[in-house]
Amino acid sequence: MDNDLALVQAAQHGDKRAFAQLVEQYEQRVYNLARKMMRDEQDAEDVLQETFISVFRNLGNFHGDSNFSTWLYRIATNASLMKLRSRKPPPLSLDEPIESGDGANALPREIVDWGITPEEALLSGETRAQMDAAIATLPETLRAVFVLRDIEGLSVQETADVLDISVPNVKTRLHRARLLLRESLSIYFKEHAIAK
Amino acid sequence: MNHEHTDLCGELSSQLPDYLDGEAREAICRAIEEHLAECEDCRVVVDTIKKTVTLYRQAPMEQVPSNVHRRLVRVLNLDDLTQPSTK
Q1: Is the pTM of this model over 0.90?
Q2: Total domains in the fold of chain B
Q3: B21, B51, B67: best to mutate for the A interface, most A CBs within 10 A
Q4: CB of A94 within 8 A of CB of A171?
Q5: Can you tell me whether residue B6 is helix, strand or coil?
Q6: At what angle do helices B66-75 and A41-58 cross, to 10 degrees?
């Protein structure tokens, strides 16, 4: 039995110390996801709290059919999306297929070469702020896929399981997100003369 | 610089997601790499997509501020059971 499952089962039987261990183990990953999804610190804290309150209330419904981390990420991602959606008119549903004729696979026209610039030169505080700002401009369905796959490091299959969408759908959204972020960073690096 | 796409650029771009994640079939990889060796614009696009992903993957995680951690354990009624955050 994996360690998470043992802790969950102990917590299901009222062992608060086991639940505290789960919180400690995953607090930072949930907070990181929430900060990338929400950007605003207070919103991220709300998502963090709502996620673990929901985990505690629903522990009895977790039967180990998926990894605990997948189940937790699903709750955290849903909490983030619900908070984002509470602020604006209804966006695309997660289940809604993405049309293929929208340029999803088109290569961009603006070509700026910053691919050979060393990471250290690119990872200044200002650049990181720009990277976070760029994520915030992504449509939320693309943002969720990108954060789970490329920031949290979930596999494509795990990302599909968390979001309850197909693997091809994850791949399509991930590619669109990467293209949009690349474009956004290219414009930034061009303006800041980091590109050659 | 403006990228004048050829049909081949568009055709290969649909294979890019699998290529970038190392999941493309060998023949597809070879075709893409042969194209990249000849098409400077496509090479730049692929390099900068790779770099974009690398930058995000290498960015440090957001640390949980100590006051955020304290409020979380208080809400969950776990005050005495978790280690304080280092930040």
Answers
A1: no
A2: 1
A3: B51
A4: no
A5: coil
A6: 30
> Is the residue at B38 inside a domain?
yes
- A3-85: in CATH 1.10.1740.10: yes
From CA B87, how far away is CA B85, in angstroms rounded? 6
Residue among A109, A150, A181 whose CB faces B3 most closely: A109
Q: List the domain boundaries for chain A.
A: 3-85, 100-191
How is residue A26 annotated by DSSP? H
Question: Is B72 domain-assigned?
Answer: no
Complex confidence, ipTM = 0.82
- Looking at the domain covering A100-191, what would its CATH class be? mainly alpha
Boundaries of domain holding B51:
7-61
| pLDDT tens for the 196 residues of chain A, in order | 589 999 999 999 999 999 999 999 999 999 999 999 998 999 999 999 999 999 999 999 999 889 999 999 999 999 999 999 887 665 555 555 444 444 445 556 557 777 766 666 666 778 888 999 999 999 999 999 999 999 999 999 999 999 999 999 999 999 999 999 999 999 888 887 655 4
Nearest to A105 among B14, B21, B75 (CB): B14
Indicate left, alpha or beta for B24 from its phi (over 0: left) and psi (-120 to 50: alpha).
beta
Q: Which residues contact B24 (CB under 8 A, 6 or more apart)?
A: B15, B18, B32
